Amino acid sequence: MATIATPEVTASPVRHAGSGASALRQVFVIVAKDLRAELRTKEAVNAALAFAIMILVLFSFAFDPAADETKMFAGGLLWIVFAFAGTLVLNRSFARELPNDCLDALIAAPISGAMLFLGKALASYVLVMAVELVALPVFGIFYYVRWYDHFWQMMLVLALGTWAITVVGTVFSALTVNIRLREVMLPMLTYPMLVPALMASMQLTADLVNGKQIWGPDFIWMKVLISFDILYTAASLALVEIVLVG
Amino acid sequence: MHAIAVEGVWKYYGDYPALRDISFTTAPGTCLALIGRNGAGKTTLLRTIAGFSRPMKGKIEILGRQPRETATRRDIGFIGHGIALYDELSAIENLMLYARLYGIPDPRRRALEWLEKTGLERVRDGLVREFSRGMRQRLAVARAFLHEPSVLLLDEPFTALDDRAIAVLQRLLREAGSKSRTIVLSTHQLREALELATHVALLNRGRVAFHGECTAEMAADPGFVYARYGEG
Predict the structure, then answer these.
(1) B23 interaction partners in chain A (CB closer than 8 Å)
(2) Superfamily assignment of B28-51+69-229 in CATH?
(3) B167 inside 8 A of chain A by CB
(4) Cα–Cα–Cα angle for A79, A83, A84, nearest 5°?
(5) HSE-up of B176 (CA within 13 Å, CB side)?
(6) Which of A50, A151, B212, B225 is the most exposed place for a label (fewest CB within 10 A)?
(7) Is residue A158 part of a domain?
């Protein structure tokens, strides 16, 4: 082994704030960066919003919105739209880092894979929620659905179901970021994983738009949704470093 | 303690061994020019040292720590083939983003300081996508040096730089050398690299063909190392 002789090792001369930026602050730095970039380009949000509204409007012509049967599958329709529109946002999550090799700089930075993932997931969550909150009143108008009768319960289901889409979508966005066909691969990988969360969200939403409370006999679906969120968030946080670095 | 210690490192792409039993150490304050033909493994070696991927076999230590440790990453500055800047953010926003990620106190002051050092203070609020290539490259240099790393890993840093950016980079690298920071730069531009290098490593098909001090002969004739130790 070749060895070169040497002066003293010097520590980095930068004096960091304490032990460096706190993990939480780093998460919010990533969130702010992603949101700022998206607000300037609007490429993901515009596409997702246009898609969501177009599908809702088109299906309202396909079915009789006043029919009771329509109320029964309205929850399912809504979450299919949210899942598809969400994928358009999530496709951009890590793909945003590809131009100029920005992902390299993030991997090289002193931020753990888990915190990077959390920052990315939270930024996507805000964007997907924004799309959903615009699409929801459109859904109410075109399908004659009183989604606001149990407003806070609806928001709870929306929040939990969206987090499920976001957390699974973000981890697969990281996994497929270097694949040429990532736009195709992301939904192919994401949707099968999301089946339990989507089933729960659809059932709970159907209950709410039909005037039932989520605390009734279908509360088991709420437990499924909460368990899914906890399990997949924990697994993603634990595995994302391997996904990013190998 | 060595600044960088690489011991028996192997890296495969499929069945192809991109790095074969690479071992060397560098001392703090060393400027190591990593040279070799295309496909020799320079980029793979630099990326593995930087912690972007793990070696299949062998180990790497930077300042006595694993490359993926958070504390190690604070001590590494990396310039790769891309500029690692966001086109939709301004110059100052880009630098402040990295300053915050590296936990630098007063990120704005540090960002402004580096914009001035690289001659970009007048365009600090301009979006990177509106910058010329030379300006983007100078900003990339500012990004890599912003946190004053102890170890600089530079992958072909002179490629496609304009004269001004080359001058800025050479000045910063000389300053870094004078502060006993360790520099490893892979390059095909031997003349620029050997002006700065204290040591040279020649990679040939994933192996270290030569590793030693940069001599007067090498500095005078950049082709000397290839002629003497290359694959012929």
Answers:
(1) 1-2
(2) P-loop containing nucleotide triphosphate hydrolases (3.40.50.300)
(3) no
(4) 120
(5) 35
(6) A151
(7) yes
Query: Which residues have C-beta within 8 Å of that of residue A67, sequence separation ≥ 6?
Result: none
For the whole model, what pTM was predicted? 0.88
The H or E element that residue B99 is part of is helix B91-101
Note whether residue A13 is domain-resident: no
Residue A10 located in a structural domain = no
> Measured between CB atoms, does B56 come within 8 Å of chain A?
no
Give the best residue of A1, A35, A40, A41 to mutate against chain B (max B CB count within 10 A): A1
- Facing B84 at nearest CB: one of A25, A26, A101: A101
Q: Which of B154, B146, B77 is nearest to A105 (CA)?
A: B77
For chain A, say whether B177 makes contact (Cβ under 8 Å): no
Nearest beta carbon to residue B105 from set A15, A36, A245:
A15
Contact A238, B44 (CB under 8 A): no
Residue type, A85: A
Radius of gyration of chain A (CA): 21
Number of compact structural domains in chain A: 1
- Give the pLDDT confidence of B107-134 residue by residue, as tens digits: 999 999 999 999 999 999 999 999 998 8
Picking from B73, B76, B105, the nearest residue to A17 by CB comes out as B105
What separation in angstroms does the CA of B84 have from each of A25, B125, B140, B197?
21, 18, 7, 25
* CB pair distance less than 8 Å for B78 and A104: yes
Whether residues B103 and A110 touch (CB distance < 8 A) is answered with yes
Domain locations in chain B as residue ranges: 28-51+69-229
Question: What confidence score (pLDDT) does residue A4 get?
Answer: 41
C-alpha span between A68 and A54 (Å, rounded)? 23
As for the ipTM of the complex, it is 0.88
